[in-house]
Design brief:
Layout (H helix, E strand, L loop, with lengths): L1 H22 L5 E5 L6 H17 L3 E5 L6 H9 L6 E6 H10 L10 E17 L7 H10 L5 E4 L5 H13 L4 E4 L3 H9 L5 E5 H9 L3 E6 L25 E9 L4 H16 L1 H9 L3 E2 L4 H22 L5
Parallel strand pairs: 1-2, 1-3, 5-6, 5-7
Antiparallel strand pairs: 3-9, 4-7, 4-8, 4-9, 4-10
Keywords: Signal
Family: Belongs to the UPF0065 (bug) family.
Protein name: MFS transporter
Length: 320
């Protein structure tokens, strides 16, 4: 009799669990952006959120939680319930670089359930249009000869723009003070105000200022030129070898989120990323749409963590 009751209870549990999954989502979904508005993380999230919401039949809310190189927003994600209702637009900084850059983090690699890569973009070396340089070589000379101009900005410590600039300084044998901001939006605004000399930024957040003539683009970090800036050389063409960097952004959920929910989220994100208008908008930002499987994205992140561990070690960089 006990065996019958146990079997019945188990069957009912499976039935109710399956039913609950079939009904998911039953409420709105939040995607945390671990950066200020205006940067690539924010832009990409807002582009796909509405389409994902339509696919899932619920509103997808974007919530900016900037600060500490993406750590504040990332910490909020890992504290959330693993029910699929709170996600994050993870990126190369908090989900790859930070592990080797910081001795201590309030999260670990195992705290995440990868969903899919959303977009990958090159970085671009930019200066204010008023800065009296037109090439990378001229910038190197200008910075080396003018102490008051030995400054560079970024979207935050440990993010790919910061690390790209550190790599650039090493390759160019330059010294400059790092001025971090809480996201690309504030960093772009500061460069527009001539508050520092140069920045290596994710292309999407600086592209409007380049196209409007407020920034001068000196080089891109991709291995080939980008269609949106055909006259801008690659770093290699500009005389800086071994300087190829691709920034990436992707959706993650807290570890423990049911596979069925992760798969539903992946399906919704993939549908959004395969839509022609999203692909067109991403291409217009100099980016490439993702859409890989959760397993493929997990392997990609693992490879990126190893790659940046080697880079940080070679650069002898550490953050408090």
């Amino acid at each position: 009799m006990k065996r019958i009751k146990s079997a019945l209870a188990l069957s009912l549990g499976i039935l109710f669990s399956t039913s609950a999954m079939a009904e998911w989502p039953e409420q709105n979904i939040t995607i945390i952006v671990p950066a200020a508005p205006g940067g690539t993380t924010d832009i990409a999230t807002r582009i796909i959120s509405e389409k994902m919401g339509k696919e899932l039949g619920k509103t997808v809310v974007v919530e900016n939680k900037a600060g500490a190189a993406g750590i504040i927003g990332t910490q909020a994600l890992v504290r959330a319930k693993p029910d699929g209702y709170t996600l994050i637009m993870g990126n190369i900084g908090p989900n790859a670089i930070n592990y080797s850059l910081y001795d201590s983090l309030p999260y670990k690699k195992e705290d995440f359930a990868p969903i899919t890569l959303v977009i990958s973009v090159p970085n671009v070396l930019v200066v204010n249009a008023e800065t009296p340089v037109k090439t990378v070589a001229e910038l190197i000379k200008y910075v080396s000869e003018n102490k008051q101009h030995q400054t560079f900005g970024s979207s935050g410590k440990g993010q790919s723009p910061h690390m790209s600039a550190e790599m650039f300084l090493q390759r160019a044998n330059l010294n400059a003070e790092h001025i971090p901001y809480k996201g690309a939006g504030p960093a772009v605004s500061a460069l527009l105000g001539n508050q520092y000399t140069f920045m290596i930024d994710n292309l999407p957040s600086s592209l409007p200022s380049i196209q409007s003539g407020k920034f001068k683009a000196l080089a891109v970090t991709s291995d080939t030129r980008v269609a949106e800036l055909p006259n801008v050389p690659t770093m290699k063409e500009a005389g800086i070898d071994n300087m190829v960097v691709t920034a990436w952004f992707g959706l993650l959920a807290p570890a423990g989120t049911p596979d069925e929910v992760v798969n539903k989220l992946h399906k919704a994100a993939k549908a959004a990323l395969e839509s022609e208008d999203v692909k067109t908008r991403f291409a217009g930002m100099g980016g490439q749409a993702g859409g890989n499987t959760p397993a493929e994205f997990a392997k990609y992140i693992e490879d990126q963590q190893a790659l940046w561990a080697d880079t940080v070690k070679a650069a002898n960089l550490k953050m408090d």
